[in-house]
Amino acid sequence: MDHLLRIIYRLLIGYWILATAWISIWAFFCPCIPKVQLRILHLCMRHRLLPVLLLALCLTTYCQNHPPLDLSDLNQAIEAASRYDAEKFRKIELLKKDLLSSGPDDKELLFRRYQPLYEEYKVFNYDSASFYARKLQEIALLLDDPARIVYARLKTGFCLLSSGMFRETLDSLNEISIKGAPDSLKAEYYALMGRYYYDLGDFDNDANYTPVYTAKGNLYMDSALQLYAPGSFFSTYYKGLKEIKSNHRQIAMVELWQLLSRPDLSDHELAVTASTLSDIYIYNGRPDTAIQLLIRAAIADIRSCTKETAAIFNLAQLLYKKGDVKNASSYIEAAIRDASFYGARQRKVQVSAILPLIEGEKISRVEGQKRTLITYSVITTLLLLIVVTLAIIIFRQVSKLKTAQRKITEAHEKVQAVNQRLMETNNKLSEANKIKEEYIGYFFNADSEFFAKIEKFKKSLEQKIAYRKWDDLITLVNNTNLKKEKEELLQNFDKIFLKLFPDFIQGFNALFREEDRVQLKDHEFLNTDLRIFALIRMGIHDNEKIARILEYSVNTINTYKTRIKNKSIVPNEAFEQRIMEIKTL
0.85 cut: is pTM over it? Predict the structure, then answer.
C-alpha cells in the first residue's frame, strides 16, 4: 500500500510539473492572446488542472502553427476574393457540364451529379443551393429511396435555416421522418434541429423564449452527439457549441481550441470553429483575442467562398467599438455584399442595425475635418474678403445711381406682365376648380353606386353559393354586362362634361366647314371624335391615357386626331389650342 501511495504521489508531482511547463511554454510562444496566463493560474488553483493543461497544449500547438494575423492580411484576402470566386464558378461550370452529359433516365447518376452542385452552393448562394436541394428531393422521390428522401430534405432545411427563414425551416424539418434512416442522417437531422433552436433563440433574444429554445436545442444536440463518431469534427464542434449555450464556456473553450489546433480542418471548418470560439472571448470581454480569431475566420471564409458567414460582420462590430471606423465601414460593406449575394435575411437585419452607427460616425468625423478646414479658410481669407466687400459696395453704389430709373421702369413693366399672368392663372384655376368640384362629386356618387352594385352582386353570389344554385350562379355571372357599365360610365362623363362646357359642341363645330361638322345621333351626348378632344380640353394630352380611358389603341387615337385635324379649317398645330380656348359655363 505504501509503495502504491508513493507511485501516486510521484505521478501527481509529475502532473503538476508538466502542467507548469506547458503553461510557461504557451506563455512564451503565444503573446497574441493577452492576459490568459493569469486565467490559467486561476483555474489551476480551482483544481481544474486537466482542462487547463489541455487548453495550454492546444493553444501552444495552435500559436506555433498559426502566427498572429493583422487586418492587412484580411484586406489582402478581400482583394483576392474575386479570384477565389472565379475559381469557384469554374468548378461549378465543370460540374454542370457533367450534369448535362447525364441521361435524364439515369436517376441514380442524376442524384450523384446533383450532390456536388448542392455542396458547392450551400454556403455560397441560397437560391442555387435551394434549387439543387429541390432537385435532389425530386430524384429521391422518383427513386422511392427513404434514405435519400431524408438526405434531400435535410439539405433543403439547411438552406432555409442559413437564409434565416425560421418558419419555413421548421415546416420543412417537421416533414422529415428519420425512422429507419442511417445514423449519419439521424445525426445530421438532430444537429440541424439543434442549430434551428439555437439560431431562433439568438434571433429572438428574449429573456422568456430564448432559454426555452436553447433547452430544446440542447436536447437535440445530445441526440446528435450520441450518433456522431467521437473525435470527429462535428462531434467536437457541436459539443463545444452545446457547452456555450449551456453557459459552460470554459469547457467549450477547451473543446474548440482542441478542434482549432487540428491540422486537417478545411477552410470552412476552420472558419466556423474560429468564429464560434470568438463568441466566448467577446462574452468574456477579451476583444483582442476575438479579433484575431475573427480575422482568421474571415480569411478562411473568403478562401472557401463562404457567403453565409457572420465572422466579418462580428469583426466590423468589434472594430467599431474600438474606434476603428474606417476598417469597420469597409468590413460591414463586405458583410452586406456577402449577405446579399447569399440571400441571408437575418444577416441583412443584423447589418441594418450597425450600419447607420458606423456611417454616422464617419459623417461626424468628416464634419469635424470640414469644420477645421473652414475655420482655417476663414482666417486666411478674411482680409481679402474685407477688401473685396468694400470694392463691391462702392461699385454697387455707383451702379445704383446710374440704373435706378431704368430699374424702376423695368420693374413697372414686369409688375404689369406679372399681373396679366396672374389674371390668366386665376382664370385657369377658377376653371380647374369648377371641373374638379363637378367631377369629384360625380365620381363620389359613381363610386357609391358602383359599390352598391358590387355589394348586391356579392350578396347574390353568396346566396347562390350557399344554396348551391350553380346554374343560377352561372346565369348571374353571364348577365353581368361590363360593356354596358362602360357605356354608362362614358355617358355620365358626357353629361358632366357638357354641363361644364355647354357650348363645347358648337365651339368644336365652328372649327369645321358645314359638311364636316359633327352630327350626333338621338340620345347621344358625345361621340368618339368629341370625347377625344373633350378629354384634351380636360387637360389630358397623353395619347396613352386617352387610349386607356376610351379602350382604343394609341394608333387608333392618333388616327382619329389626324383625320379630324385634317378636316378642320384651322392649321393642325393650332387646332388643340383652339379647343383649349372653349370656355366653361
Answer: no
